[in-house]
Design goal:
Jelly Rolls; 5-stranded antiparallel sheet; globular
Length: 190
């Protein structure tokens, strides 16, 4: 299998395209193959996989776990289409506070790799979506926090302007709040 990894403007965040076979019966896809992904530069050891279902307009994010339990994510949409976003939280990075967004769909099978040092969120664009993502660390609720989806300092252009949010995401802090709490910081080493 030959996967294609495409860089984004945020160092470390990459798009992953995996060839898959279609025929009259449907399709077959190797969603993860450690050796092939390592050969493409993604040598991750995943320990947990999550699966969510959301209705159109739901926005989940921008979530991250602080440095007590950092983790990478490999995200794919397995039903419908989402707008998937990563935000650079690496203090000292030339792209700190910048975001990258892309559509992921079940039809394309494209994935987004989001490494440690980034917040992640997505918005459901079709009637229903299902999202599956692998993590290199275990979920640790005491270390998870959020940055507001509509923080003007980040300036994400979400496709649906009035999203459906959880109470937790409605109360999320700002990028300035993040900077004010050094315990959260991911640092870029020179």
């Amino acid at each position: 299998m030959k996967i294609t990894v495409t860089a984004t403007p945020l160092a470390g965040v990459v798009l992953v395209d995996t060839p898959f076979n279609h025929d009259q019966r449907g399709f077959f896809l190797e969603a993860w193959h450690a050796r092939d992904y390592a050969a493409a530069g993604l040598d991750a050891r995943f320990v947990q996989e999550n699966h969510s279902r959301s209705q159109r307009g739901v926005l989940r994010g921008l979530h991250f776990q602080d440095m007590r339990a950092p983790l990478d994510k490999l995200i794919r949409c397995t039903l419908g289409t989402i707008f998937d976003v990563a935000v650079d939280l690496r203090v000292g990075s030339p792209t700190f506070g910048q975001w990258f967004g892309t559509e992921l769909s079940a039809e394309s099978a494209r994935q987004l790799y989001v490494p440690v040092g980034f917040a992640h969120g997505f918005q459901a664009l079709t009637e229903y979506v299902e999202v599956q993502y692998r993590q290199t660390g275990y979920y640790a609720p005491e270390t998870e926090t959020s940055i507001a989806w509509d923080d003007p300092e980040i300036g994400i252009t979400w496709p649906i302007a009035e999203p459906l949010l959880s109470d937790r995401d409605r109360r999320a802090g700002s990028l300035r709040d993040y900077l004010a709490n050094p315990a959260f910081h991911y640092m870029v080493r020179a």
